What we know:
Blueprint: H1 3-12, H2 16-39, E1 46-48, H3 49-55, H4 60-70, E2 88-90, H5 95-104, H6 108-111, H7 122-135
Antiparallel strand pairs: 1-2
Amino acid sequence: MSLHRRWSEWIGGQTDDTFDAFWEEYSSAEERIYRDILQRYPAVPQGILGELAESYGIEPVLYMGFLDGINSSLKEPLPLEKFDEQSEFTLDIDYDVLLFNMHVAAADYLYGLEEWDRVFSADEQEAIYSRYRRSKTVIREPKIGRNDPCPCGSGKKYKKCCGKDA
């Protein structure tokens, strides 16, 4: 069974009783990995999955979870379904997308890391956060009333024109 499949089954098999322990283990490992990557910026992270997992003191399946999470923030996504412990890879990270995705995931323990200061200035971090906030803002178009002029420009009332079929 591939590591990605094991990861998917492991995360899907969590119960209310086991989730807190799982999340504590995963989030602390994820934080350690991201701290290391951000401290080494601009170096491009690369290596063999099993060796990297061992260097962080975690199981390879947990490292696969990290890869699954960061995959959408890579310039070229990795074929994770084909990965095993001997798979060699390079993480060509789009740091702008990564920070944005951390906001989307509400991972304050990750987007709040002080190591981000090595990658982005405070203004750049604020701009990414502002872009995230704007992406969540719902803008409602003004409602067209029955007796308002039709937006098609015919000069008729909406109820006698385009609103007739609505």
